[in-house]
Design brief:
- The protein has a domain of 243 residues: Pectate Lyase C-like (3 Solenoid), CATH 2.160.20.
- It is 6% helix and 31% strand.
- It is built from two helices and 32 strands.
- The radius of gyration is 22 Å and the shape is globular.
- The protein starts with a helix and ends in a 60-residue tail after the last strand.
- The relative contact order is 0.08.
- The N terminus and C terminus are likely disordered.
Length: 391
């Protein structure tokens, strides 16, 4: 009887929570509750647990979701029809077009910068995600355990930026099913634990994805292609950069079932400057046809603490500078033409089919659209919920 009473109370609490949540509308259509997104977020009537539905249009505003509001903010017509643009050029320091400081959900928007890309930098050390240089703009910044889904970002220093204290709140922020294109850096994770999964990171001008400054991220099932510019420091597809000294334990980012191809520079680079050991796990991925080295470890000064990635069941092939450099754990990998077809899908004769470990993915790598049923295919699996593959 006590168990039944407890179960009834839980159901009642959930029902009451649902009953008291509200849905608000934003847009130019007659009957909309608000005309701007930020107006809806800050209105006292809009409470945590509420949903804000945003109609199609161009919204010239900066978006701020404070830490004391947990909201679902969703477009009704998807990112192609719902565009957020900064209203003016950055002044007096960096500007974040969208800043989410809570565990809110933000879904279905394009965030672009009509004022053009920031001036190019050549060394990573000049990047300061919190710095006072107005060139360090960001499209969508997360400092809480937010969920960012089905968004497209372009024209910023950082397309998507996840930074401390997001990981310190006990829940990892999540970026899934997004497209980052024509930014300087596609996705940057700094001082946090993050989920970077199921994204298309393409044609960014410096680095596709950075896991930096004591981050320990799940970088899983991303298409990371065509990023980088010759002559820029560590231009590459994915960069694991350990340069803070306050983590007392090993850092093991997981880089799994990604396709990293056609980047200007190396495919994946691992750097250690100070702090805990940098020991990423790179598995079930294709690292192919990059202009530099496929997977490269940059030795630390005087060999103090070189990164030690474990590379497991990958296909590392056709990289102009060689397949690997300074890697001492290369386990059950191959080096064969992946036989890409259009959109980085795999033909039926690809050596990457069923070449990985036990299946844990949805979607397909295959040009005929068939789903994985046996061992994992290497490389990016197109999730069914991607809004617009390859934009």
């Amino acid at each position: 009887m006590k168990k039944m009473v407890f179960t009834t109370m839980v159901i009642l609490i959930i029902s009451l929570s649902t009953a008291f949540s509200a849905t608000w509308t934003v847009g130019s259509a007659d009957g909309s509750d608000f005309s701007s997104i930020q107006q809806a977020i800050m209105d006292e009537s809009v409470q945590s647990g509420d949903t804000i539905l945003v109609g199609p249009g161009v919204y010239n505003e900066l978006i701020r979701v404070p830490s004391d509001k947990i909201l679902t903010i969703r477009s009704t017509d998807g990112f192609d029809e719902t565009i957020i643009r900064r209203p003016g050029e950055p002044v007096n320091g960096p500007q974040m077009t969208v800043l989410i400081q809570s565990g809110s959900t933000f879904e279905g928007f394009t965030v672009d910068n009509p004022f053009g890309l920031p001036k190019p930098l050549t060394t990573l050390e000049k990047i300061s995600v919190r710095g006072d240089e107005m060139e360090n703009t960001a499209g969508i910044t997360v400092t809480g355990p937010a969920k960012i889904q089905n968004c497209k970002v372009s024209g910023h220093r950082f397309g998507f930026l996840q930074e401390c204290p997001s990981g310190a709140l006990g829940q990892a922020p999540s970026m899934r099913y997004n497209i980052s294109v024509n930014n300087d850096i596609g996705i940057c994770c700094c001082e946090t634990y993050s989920e970077v999964r199921d994204n298309i990171v393409m044609d960014n001008f410096w680095v596709g994805i950075i896991s930096a400054h004591s981050s320990c991220d799940d970088i899983i099932n991303n298409l990371v292609v065509g990023n980088g510019t010759a002559g820029r420091d560590y231009s590459c597809g994915i960069l694991c950069w350990q340069s803070y000294d306050w983590r007392p334990y090993e850092l093991n980012p997981r880089i799994s079932v990604n396709t990293v191809s056609g980047n200007i520079g190396d495919g994946i680079v691992c750097i250690w400057e100070r702090g805990a050991p940098n020991m990423p796990v790179i598995e079930n991925s294709i690292i192919a046809s990059n202009s530099g080295i496929g997977i490269r470890v940059v030795p630390s000064e005087e060999g103090i603490c070189d990164p030690k990635p474990r590379v497991y069941k990958c296909n590392v092939w056709g990289n102009d500078g060689g397949e690997v450099a300074n890697i001492n754990r290369l386990i059950d990998c191959i080096s064969q033409d992946p036989l890409f077809e259009e959109g980085y899908l795999l033909g039926n004769n690809s050596p990457c089919i069923d070449r990985g470990s036990i299946p844990d993915n949805r979607g397909t790598t295959r040009s005929n659209g068939s789903q994985d049923r046996l061992n994992t295919d290497l490389g990016f699996h197109y999730p069914i919920t991607i809004v617009s593959p390859l934009y």
